[in-house]
Amino acid sequence: MISAALGATLALVTPLSPLILPNQGTNSEGSGWRRNFQYDLARPVNILVMGIDRVMDAPKGSSEALAGRSDTILLLRLDPTDNSVRMLSVPRDTRVEIPGIGLAKINDANVEGGSALAARVVSRTLNNVPIDRYVRVTTDAFRELVDLVGGIEVFVPHSMKYTDVYQNLEIDLEQGWQTLNGDQAEQFARFRQENGDIGRIQRQQVLLKALRQRLVSPTVLPRLPKLVRVMQQYIDTNLSLEEILALVGFSLELEQDDFKMVLLPGRFSLKDEYQASYWLMDTIGRDRVVREYFQETSEQAQADSRRSPNQVRIAIQNTTDDPELSNRIAQYLAQKEFYNVYFVKDWPDQLRQTQIIVQQGDLKAAATLKKVLGLGKVEASSTGDIRSELTIRVGQDWLERELRIKN
Predict the structure, then answer these.
(1) Which of 11, 208, 296, 366 could form a disulfide bond with 45, CB atoms 3.0-4.6 angstroms apart?
(2) Entry pTM
(3) Among the residues of 13-55, which ranges form H helices?
(4) Mean pLDDT of the chain
């Protein structure tokens, strides 16, 4: 989990020009803390980040502690050419071909061949996207980082209670906005009684967004170089300290909208398909994500890009007190020839602004839908309904729009 935070904060670098100094007469918020980051990102870089399951009885900080299965698998692209960070979450149960093993779950790759085999398998699964660096980290690191920054603010959509004696895990969280410490944040991430592993990935994305917001706060920014050094004890990587600091500096200068997160498109296997349960990758969706997030193309991806935005599957989720609002939204979309629409349970946190959540990475369709609606904010993260391609989380601004039209 922490791996994602450090990965979105970590690559190839060149020294800053001596002309770029902290005291150049600028009043920007970053001018003071930026002096601690003396390197710039030289080119786009792809980083494989893996959070490794605890290996019982393995000494802390040992290579054995990082020899377990990958609990979290992320591929990050940090791109200075367009000032963006893109993050793909790969479900650990994704069914893939592992050289020398055969068809298996992708999280077995680290066990069988360490970071080298894991990188090879992830790259081949994603149309041979190049991987420049890797980061492996124990799950203990996430709790440590959250505590070091003083906790993170997260909305818990419903109460979460679960006990697993074997894993020494007890989850006890109440619904609502709250500041989570490291242990509570791990509970939030590991809760599995809602959409299984995919639900966990969605909550990981929520935590990463909250963690970044905390990292750029004025009280934490000055301490970041020290935090990076403290966290190195939990990490196995082929990134140098200078590269890590360059990636931290790069990512922290970006705006929230410059961060885009997506889940590898696919579906759960059916009970009678295989003996084990898998996440079965949607190859067309995979190609779209690789194209839009990692700038790699294929013939199948180009064909997918020509489909009409009206074909996308849209979930409507109401966050207001008006129980009929979802029906009115569906009627409006039907007038615009968007018919592949369905309803999901209301979201308990009332939103001021409508969100268009890009569940499966189709950024172009999301932009089209926003234009059709005439309002809203595109949320590039897979935190909507898992069956959808886009989820409209309808806010108060739609009611205000109706009122303006009526008057």
Answers:
(1) 11
(2) 0.85
(3) 30-33
(4) 85
